[in-house]
Amino acid sequence: MNAGGEQSGSSVSDEEWERFLRESADGKPDAPKEPSARARVVARRLREEPTRPEAWRTYAPPRPRRKKGWYAVGLLVSLALLVVALDPGRVIGWFGGGGEAGGPLAAESERPDQPPPMEPARRPTLDEPFKGSPAARWVSGTAGITVPAARATGWMSTAQVEGALRRSRDFLAAASLDPGVLRGEHPGKAIALINPHQQDVQDFLSIAFRAPSRKNDPLLLFSRFDKAHTRLVGDVVKTRGRITYREGERGALQVTADVTYVYPVARAATSSDEVARTIVRREVVLNWDDPAKVITEPGTFSLVSYKVDTTNGGCDTVTGYLTPEFAAEEPATGAGGGPEVDPYDRSTSMAERMEAADEGCGTATRS
């Protein structure tokens, strides 16, 4: 018992309690017993809470949730997907609309099985030169060129293959990404990587820059703009492609590079703010030859083949430079008499693309 007592906790009256004390002293066995403190607490709780308390181990299963709401959610999701399919541009606008939907694409590890989805038609600007183009989600420079893991191949060890793949990518950068070369300068750094003993290629190089022709066109290997006509917008060139390799003839390491380059350009006049894009897909096959079997110089390769497909770079004109057209001129996607071509479609091989190009200047479905 606590010091203050608990009157309402006892079921024995004062008279009975006095009788209990007397009878206890007399030793009577049937005297009433004092209830324990726990019994008094329980008795009080029963009086104050007449309803039966729930046992502490009692489990009431939750009521099943009604599923009617999920049907409504499913219907809303279906409608949202339909809106995205019919008008993706509007959906982009809901979220601020400044950039392209989605983040950067993962590196291209193999040839895709379909072209990239069509983007909403939006005009590029000086601040956003890749707006409205799949290239908005591509990465820039050599980061967009996938280089595979090295393994011993042909006459080369794993370490030698790794070095050859790195120098092959260096050639692509020097030929198609170097700022000076893009402004029309001579691509000396790239040419230095080509086997000087490969006479047919050396003859091609000596003629191509001096007297370009359809047969000897420097654009087969190099991207160049005439700075009197065209200026690049910013310093970013978007790229997408990959390098592959296998063992070639006489045990050579044969490397194939298939890369698409997207160049945003404007007229040379600084007052012009119209932006166009020139898109170049180039495939180059080269051999890193065994010096015991082929005359070569250390750190150089032999060219096996080279192909190029260009959109808005000039058609039926051979100047040694890419010559883009702008809206005030003949549109870049204007009819060229040949088949329609999607310049961003990398699901077709370059061999197939070249077959289509034989039919004449095509019509680009987008730029």
Write the layout of secondary structure elements.
Elements: H1 14-26, H2 37-48, H3 68-86, H4 88-94, E1 139-140, E2 145-146, H5 158-176, H6 179-182, H7 188-191, H8 199-208, E3 230-232, E4 238-247, E5 253-267, E6 276-288, E7 302-311, E8 340-341, H9 350-357, E9 363-364
Parallel strand pairs: 2-4, 8-9
Antiparallel strand pairs: 1-4, 3-5, 4-5, 5-6, 6-7
Q: How would you describe this structure to a colleague?
A:
There is one protein chain. With 367 residues, the chain is of the alpha+beta class. It has two domains: 10-92, no CATH class; 125-364, no CATH class. It is built from nine helices and nine strands. It has helices spanning 14-26, 37-48, 68-86, 88-94, 158-176, 179-182, 188-191, 199-208, 350-357; strands spanning 139-140, 145-146, 230-232, 238-247, 253-267, 276-288, 302-311, 340-341, 363-364. Strands 1, 2, 3, 4, 5, 6 and 7 form a seven-stranded mixed β-sheet that branches. β5 and β6 form a beta hairpin. The chain starts with 13 loop residues before the first helix and ends with a strand. The model is unreliable at 1-10, 31-35, 50-73, 87-99 and 331-335 (pLDDT under 50).
